[in-house]
């Protein structure tokens, strides 16, 4: 005799198969969502760490820029101070130069033949005005000044006879160019 099973066993297998497939799909989706959540949290933590490092680096950069600015200000102040010190040293070196020049010039004047009335300095040009006993005394004085070490050249601007208290003198005016540094 032939037995026929009228129970729907294949449908049960299909239902079990369908349930297993649904379980696998739902489980895979849950695992996928969990993986996405893990990757999301991992990326979020990396981004927050990088942002903290960026903020720390920015604070360090601002501090270093401030120090560099202070260093530049220090360099400018140092250059200004060195310039002022150089000016003071130059002034100190040249402080006695005019006095020494006038003293040396006074030593060149022959006492009984030449009388200086005015000495004017403008830059490196010196103008000497005075009276001499005669033309020879004035010419000798001019040659003496030409041989004077600080002078480059001496030019006679004018020489004329002048009468003072009934005595005739030779009035003169020299223009002298001095060497640099005097």
Give a topology summary.
Elements (H helix, E strand, L loop, with lengths): L8 H86 L2 H12 L5 E9 L2 E8 L2 H12 L4 E14 L2 E12 L4
Antiparallel strand pairs: 1-2, 2-4, 3-4
What descriptive keywords fit this protein?
single chain; 182 residues; alpha+beta; Gyrase A, domain 2; four-stranded antiparallel sheet; 3 helices; 4 strands; rod-shaped
If you had to describe this structure to a student in words, what would you say it looks like?
- The chain is α+β, with helices and mostly antiparallel strands.
- The protein has a domain at 97-178: Gyrase A, domain 2 (2-Layer Sandwich).
- 60% of the residues lie in helices and 24% in strands.
- The chain has helices spanning 9-94, 97-108, 135-146; strands at 114-122, 125-132, 151-164, 167-178.
- The protein has a four-stranded antiparallel beta sheet with strand order 1-2-4-3.
- Strand 1 and strand 2 form a beta hairpin.
- The longest helix has 86 residues, at 9-94.
- The chain is rod-shaped, with a radius of gyration of 53 Å.
- The mean pLDDT is 86.
């Amino acid at each position: 005799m032939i037995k026929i099973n009228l129970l729907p066993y294949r449908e049960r297998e299909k239902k079990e198969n369908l349930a297993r497939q649904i379980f696998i799909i739902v489980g895979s989706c849950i695992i996928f969502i969990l993986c996405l959540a893990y990757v999301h949290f991992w990326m979020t933590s990396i981004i927050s760490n990088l942002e903290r490092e960026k903020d720390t680096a920015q604070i360090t950069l601002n501090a270093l820029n401030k120090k560099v600015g202070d260093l530049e200000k220090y360099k400018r102040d140092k250059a200004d101070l060195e310039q002022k010190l150089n000016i003071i040293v130059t002034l100190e070196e040249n402080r006695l130069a005019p006095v020494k020049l006038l003293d040396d010039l006074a030593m060149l004047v022959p006492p009984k033949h030449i009388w200086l009335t005015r000495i004017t300095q403008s830059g490196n040009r010196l103008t000497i005005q005075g009276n001499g006993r005669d033309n020879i005394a004035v010419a000798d004085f001019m040659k003496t000044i030409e041989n004077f070490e600080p002078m480059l050249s001496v030019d006679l601007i004018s020489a004329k006879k002048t009468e003072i208290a009934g005595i005739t003198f030779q009035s003169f005016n020299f223009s002298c160019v001095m060497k640099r540094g005097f």
